[in-house]
Amino acid sequence: xxxxxxxxxxxxxxxxxxxxxxxxxxxxxxxxxxxxxxxxxxxxxxxxxxxxxxxxxxxxxxxxxxxxxxxxxxxxxxxxxxxxxxxxxxxxxxxxxxxxxxxxxxxxxxxxxxxxxxxxxxxxxxxxxxxxxxxxxxxxxxxxxxxxxxxxxxxxxxxxxxxxxxxxxxxxxxxxxxxxxxxxxxxxxxxxxxxxxxxxxxxxxxxxxxxxxxxxxxxxxxxxxxxxxxxxxxxxxxxxxxxxxxxxxxxxxxxxx
Length: 257
What we know:
Number of helices: 0
Distance between the termini: 122 Å
Largest sheet: 5 strands, mixed
Radius of gyration: 41 Å
Oligomer: single chain
């Protein structure tokens, strides 16, 4: 009957996780997150590692036929936070983040330069302005007993500020009669702020009367307000479609003669 030997045998296990050339020697790494130590020794041709010591130098200088070997927990020895960044470190797990930066009083942050620093200036950079737009779709207008019909064709709800407003439209008479339509823009339904155009055309024999129009102007207010595209028909059976749009503008400089 077989029985194991009573002799005790000591077994040493060495696990090499990763290796690669570093400078003129060889580096072996185990990748811990914290308290990363570095060891240095001498590797002989037979594969023996000797004179291992903590730090960047072996316990004894390596011979001419030996190779300096570094054992460490990683192949990156330091992470330096460059311009615009904060954090970094030379040991263990490190973190990089954007550095807290600010502009002097009275200046505005208008971007980040190629060096990672905040670019400051005396005036803010305006974002691309949004455009407000409303389309009426086709609708029929007719005067009643000689009295013009009035329709609020399109409305924009605008915030406080200055706006360049445009009104475009087209119309024709569906029954072959005379086309006679006026369209204009009112700010908060105040007739003193009107601007716009007039759609007027006479009937042409053999076809339908038709016309196009366009008008523009500045609307402004210190509080939220409305601009309304309003049309009036002075004849019957007029098909109309208008588009009202507005874009925010900055300071208005009147250079009229």
